[in-house]
Amino acid sequence: MRLLVTGGCGFIGSNFIRLVLEEHSEDEVLNLDKLTYAGNPENLRDVEGDPRYSFQQGDICDADDVGKAFAWNPDMVINFAAETHVDRSITSPEDFVKTDVLGTYRLLEQVREMGVRFMQISTDEVYGSISEGSFSEESPLQPNSPYAASKAGADLLVRSYVRTYGIDAVIARSSNNYGPYQYPEKVIPLFVTNLLEGRRVPLYGEGRNIRDWLYVRDNCRGLDLVLRSGQSGEAYNVGAGQEKTNLELTRAILEIMGKGEESIQNVPDRLGHDLRYSVETSKIKALGWSPRMDFESGLQRTVQWYRDHAAWWEPIKSGEFRRYYAEKYGDI
Ligand code: NAD
Ligand code: DAU
């Protein structure tokens, strides 16, 4: 199979490409990535020499860049490329609308023309917040942040292209991922690297919000399965069933790192902050997937990865990130 992967230099995309190259010896991958602040070629340095892997720098919103990538003749296209950080979508939504909606549209147009299979990497956030129970794939989309709304817009476009033009497409909606190579603006790598730097961790509000933590390798196995076995026109939730409040998560990180509660800095809450995400996963389980990593082991492993890879995250935190972060909190 020839897989065109967009956004492969980000966190999940790079883990996905590594998994495909390891587990499917016949597959070839072309990675189309704009290299925004979140895209980092270092994430794939170890596979760069693999003859089955190639890279094209380009923007999924640009018809020429997309056309060039499709000229490689992929069998399947997997769209990870997106603006992904909820806080940034609250302060500057425009790039989210552009990449997450218009970019998906550009890809869909080429998919329609070339008749290849398409997979949209969506998120559990498109359903909005749920205080009890879990969302199924049939639940209405009720996004609450500009990020989630842009992702929901893309999902609806995919649905419309299946219904209207008969394209072959699936959607995956995953819960919060964690693990190696996650950009340190997201809560787990932010908190772990702050503690390694001797800083405090900025906990929003009272830390009551709940997220379901899914180890990135487990997510990538699920996405790979949906890509190859999912039914066209269907969406598949991917979740680990490992829900934690942010305070529980923070305390677990502090304990692993031998730090006390004085390292917590309570900061003003995120605007429109969704209380809880939770997805029902019987549909992907029926395809034969289940998560393997329990939260405690996954968190230990993740903390150790950031301890061992300061050379990966230190340059990020001293660059664009430091300016972004200083604007938010000063120097905590
Ligand atoms: P990320 O921010 O780490 O990486 C995004 C990648 O997309 C970067 O390499 C970036 O350079 C690239 N990109 C951005 N705009 C682009 C454009 N216009 N053209 C080409 N490339 C572009 O993101 P992530 O956390 O790895 O998320 C990947 C996908 O998974 C996203 O679609 C996101 O919505 C979805 N998702 C993420 C999570 C999570 O917990 N991280 C959970 C569910 C779904
Ligand atoms: O649910 C899937 C989504 O998970 C993905 O679609 C998004 O791309 C990804 O960014 C993530 O969104 P969240 O907003 O849930 O992740 P984030 O790491 O930004 O925040 C997780 C929780 O931690 C959230 O309730 C806000 C809180 N938080 C976050 C940061 C960055 C803090 O308390 N302090 C922080 O500094």
Structural write-up:
This protein is an alpha/beta fold and 332 residues long. It has 2 domains: 2-175 and 216-238, Rossmann fold (3-Layer(aba) Sandwich); 178-211 and 241-278 and 292-317, UDP-galactose 4-epimerase, domain 1 (Alpha-Beta Complex). Helices cover 42% and strands 17% of the residues. It has helices spanning 11-23, 63-70, 86-91, 94-114, 146-165, 187-196, 216-229, 246-256, 282-286, 295-308, 310-318, 320-329; strands at 2-6, 28-33, 53-57, 76-79, 117-123, 169-174, 176-178, 201-204, 210-215, 235-238, 243-245, 264-267. The strands form 3 sheets. It has a 7-stranded parallel β-sheet with strand order 3-2-1-4-5-6-10, with helices on both faces. Strands 7-9-11 form a 3-stranded mixed β-sheet. Helix 6 packs across helix 10. It is globular, with a radius of gyration of 19 Å. The model has no long low-confidence stretch (mean pLDDT 97). Bound molecules: nicotinamide-adenine-dinucleotide and 2'deoxy-thymidine-5'-diphospho-alpha-D-glucose (DAU). Nicotinamide-adenine-dinucleotide (NAD) binds next to helix 1, helix 4, strand 5 and strand 7.
**How many β-strand stretches?**
12
Strand order of the largest sheet: 3-2-1-4-5-6-10
SSE sequence, one letter per element: EHEEHEHHEHEEHEEHEEHEHHHH
Bound molecules: nicotinamide-adenine-dinucleotide, 2'deoxy-thymidine-5'-diphospho-alpha-D-glucose
Low-pLDDT segments: none
Radius of gyration: 19 Å
Give me the CATH fold name of the largest domain: Rossmann fold
Biggest β-sheet description: 7 strands, parallel
